[in-house]
Amino acid sequence: QVQLVESGGGLVQAGGSLRLSCAASGRTFSSYAMGWFRQGPGKEREFVAAINRNDDTALADSVKGRFTISRDSAKNTVYLQMNSLKPEDTAVYYCAAKPVVGGLRIRKNQYEYDYWGQGTQVTVSS
After folding, report:
1. Confidence band of 102 (pLDDT split at 50, 70, 90)
2. What would the DSSP string read from start to end of 62-90?
3. pLDDT score for 103
């Protein structure tokens, strides 16, 4: 069982920055595929960013150039650095994990993930 705890959300003005953290339990964190997803008001949950166990990354087109995903395996933590925030980035942000035995495919589909955090609210005011 993997437990994920997100932190770092809050209220920020447009153009500002936030860094979300997701702390994971488990001794094999370095082998996990990790992802960030978000769900805005009245919207479906959508892909934001993902990182594989080789630290290769993928970002949604809507956040490219503004967001960065990274991981620190020594701290069992994955980060989402969000810069130049826009009101449309307002959402609950969720961290997700999938233990991977082999392969380096970057996973953008939320249904591929086995474990989810409780979510952290990000609100961007105009």
Report:
1. confident
2. TTTTTEEEEEEGGGTEEEEEE-S--GGG-
3. 79
